[in-house]
Specification:
This protein is mainly beta. It is 7% helix and 48% strand.
Amino acid sequence: MRQYLFLVIASVCGTVAAQTPATNPMPDGSRDMYIGVGAQSVPRYDGASDRRTLALPVLQVQWSNGVFVSGTTLGWHLSQSPSMEFGPMLALSPRRDQDGVSFSFSGVSEGSGARMAHTSFRPGEFNERGELDANRLRDMDVVKRRVLAGGFFNYYLSPKLRLTNTLTYGSGREHNGARLHTALQYMMEDVVPHHTFVLSAGVSVVNRAYNETWFGVTQEEADRSGVKDFYRPGAGVQDVRAGVRWNWALSPSWMLTSGATVNRLVGDAKDSPLVERSTNYSISTALAYRF
């Protein structure tokens, strides 16, 4: 039986791709479920230089009929082939206001936590009173939560190497933002007994509507702020990223799952006046119980 022990942790921001657990043949009527809690350190929003440390709920459930819940993603495995995984999915895109991204976890709790790094003062914008204003999201419109529709297609190049593709649509002000995330994932199982490592590298391609939602500045927003310029990013590659996940099976029922991701914005996203730091990282760890 081939099984990736993916415990997909709540997305650190709206631009993080949803991940799908590998299909796992199970007896009819059965299910496999992990529930846990941990902590994560993430940027305040994609492109921010200050960070937050937050509580991290973990949820993954997979049923024998192929339906799964993984973090903020609901999907359905339809393939009967051992070398392919595909199906429809729904994903929750988070809210972003002047405080940053709301790190919500669907059906569990509202993420909250204190910033653990100083607020950035680059590049030194000033508000209408001539005071230094470090928050680049100030005077920006709120990006509302959205339920995104999409699908996934994964292909196993070998028993340990799979190519993943996830497409979502429906984000943004006009519900027409689209994003495709493609990645390679390599699993190293039992390199050390009871330890599994998954290495990944991927790239995200977005349409103009998606880039405008998260990295654009409308004329109204520019007029309100008095310091930002109108900015309309185009379609193209938005970011590249690399990551590692480490799962430690403490017992048949308990698992410690940890991960780290480095993300670099590129293209029009990188040039956005909202971006303080184009390269950032996220780390997390959580203890999960298998039912």
